[in-house]
Act minimal PKS acyl carrier protein (Lentzea flaviverrucosa), 83 residues
Amino acid sequence: MSALTIEGLKEILNEAAGDDDSFKPGQDILDLPFLELGFDSLALLETVALIKRKHGAAISDDELAYIETPRQLLDKVNGQIAA
């Protein structure tokens, strides 16, 4: 399985939020907190479910509680994909 990119994550986040253009092209969101981006815990649970379905990487609710930014989520997902 190939690594999840920031662009791929943006697509999944948009899908989870039910929006097709939440992010501006080229917008750097890597280190912005999910809450600042408008994603609450429910949206993140949906995001994680989509990531599991599309990339096979499972993140537990306990792990998700400590993931605050897209960079942290990408690191976690890609670490599982590489393993």
